[in-house]
Amino acid sequence: MALGGILLVAALAYARVLHGEFQWDDFSSVVENPRIRNLQDVLAGFLPALIRSGRPVVDLTFALNHAAGGLAPFGYHLVNLAIHACAVVLVFAFTRTVLRLAGAPRPRVVAILVAGAFALHPLQTQAVSYVAQRAESLASCAYLGALLLLLLAERRGPSPAGVAAYLLGFSVFILGLGSKVIVATLPAAYLLLAWMIPRGAHRTEMTSLPRRLAMLVPWVAADILLSTRTMQSIEGAPDAGFSVAGLPPITYLLTQFRVIVTYVRLLLLPVGQFVEWNIPAASGPVDAAVLLPGAILAGVLALAGWLFLSGRARAGGDGGARCTAAFGIVWFFLLLAPTSSIVPLADLLQEHRVYLASWGLFVAVAVAAERVVDRFRIPPVAAGGVAFALLLALALLTFRRNAVWETRLGLWSDEVARAPENWRAHLNLGFAYAERGRTDDALREYRAAFALGGGAAPATASYILNNIGAVLANAGRTEEAVVPLRQSLELRPAETDVLFNLALLERLLGNEAEAEALATRAIRVRPDHALSLNLLGEIRLEQGDARAALDLFRRAASATLDDGAPRYNTGKALARLGQVAQACTTWRQLASDPSVAPAMRQLSAKALARERCPR
Predict the structure, then answer these.
(1) Domains of the chain, CATH where assigned
(2) Which long-range contacts (CB under 8 A, 24 or more apart) does 591-599 make?
(3) Closest Cα to residue 150, out of 192, 199, 198?
(4) pLDDT (tens digit, 9 = 90+) per residue, 381-417?
(5) Which residues in the chain come in under a pLDDT of 70?
């Protein structure tokens, strides 16, 4: 009943984001992701994708969401919340199992406290309320599920039930690797758990070390294979791996000392959260921002060592509790290793990365609290009241934090208010204003982003100038918009979005030849650039070349999750070629497609009436 209550409160704390807008990377992961458009294609290519690298499991869930409800955010948020609820249940089961194996007192009570903290802590909001970070919670469910199945396989031995648990656990492990690379640490966590169980507890339920190592052989092999392919896939990437500009591995590692201490602070005192953390890279090993956090982390690891050694020397529940707390602390560092060690990531700190790692600190604190209650004989009612108040406070903080995830304008307004020097926050706030047609506000934020550092690198300067041009164009200030777009193109001559935007403006200004040349350049750089394909198709149709236009429209329609314009234009080209029946079929399908904008459906309905298409 207590676990059900926690899940209910968690649902209430996250209810406000169920109708929230897509945010930030949601556009590349969902809205503009061509891989999730066709569920049958995703299913057909799932196993090959799982063997290669990447996150095919996450893409499959997005494809299922898209098949069920198109691009309506509600379904995606609902699934994210359901995955979080699953993770909470698995956290409860895993915590109780670990405590029972260690012989620690009150395993169910402590497991409820840990599950409650995990479910309701505001630091988890980025992994739950941010649709694209479904990868984190999916991988966490797979991680805990596979560990529990491995422990079950140990208990059942070579029986049919034990073999089934082992094979199912391995399958879940592979699915976890296809969700996010954090699952690569699972074999180490399993060995660590078995080693840290104190002598004389429930070790009779566990197998011998040689058999345990033999069980892990295929797991480690799969781990190495998929981890190697992941590293190969990010080779040369600007935002991950050893090619991140200005961030060598040792600098990244030293910077992570401060990052990890920040994670600990956020878990213990959950205030001051950001989406865009502005953490400067470490200048060297004697940097004060390295020495102090390094000393703190060394102290925490020393505490874990003392707890483990003293726990192994003690019999009974106190020894088991100490070993469990030590395991929790080491778990925290182990789960952060893929993102907080020597493989650089351009985003130095992201709150979602601590999602499953948080279990370690939660269990260490909960076990310590249980020991304090026992030692000082605090009445259960008083202890329960304090625990209830803390969980309720976490739930309220989570509800409040989720307010920023409801809208893009709310999220980035909050970021700019609390970090006015962050140019990327200003950039995203400008985008949110532009969506709402607030031209002057968007221009102000874009120019602030440029001045605060966004204009330092050619790529980001070009991007901001392109956004300025787009905002001006949407406001009808066409001639004024050409200037920043041409500046943007000078910085990045092969940028397809800039080429398209400039082509569109030149066409509006009557410069048809220039528009045609720019659209052709964009397609030469990126043959599947749907907007440029559609624009060039419209130009060809106006020139009287309906057959060439038809080919361009069809390529545009198949290239992306479009707004329906290429399909509408496909009907126009077919009608121009005398293929009215096919044109009618195209418009009829578009008019009944709920995934496209109502305006495009209305245009298709008018075309059906104009051509007197049969119903």
Answers:
(1) 2-404 (no CATH), 409-559 (1.25.40.10)
(2) 593/564, 594/70, 595/70, 595/71, 595/561, 596/563, 596/564, 597/563, 597/564
(3) 192
(4) 999 999 999 999 999 999 999 999 999 999 999 999 9
(5) 198-206, 560-562
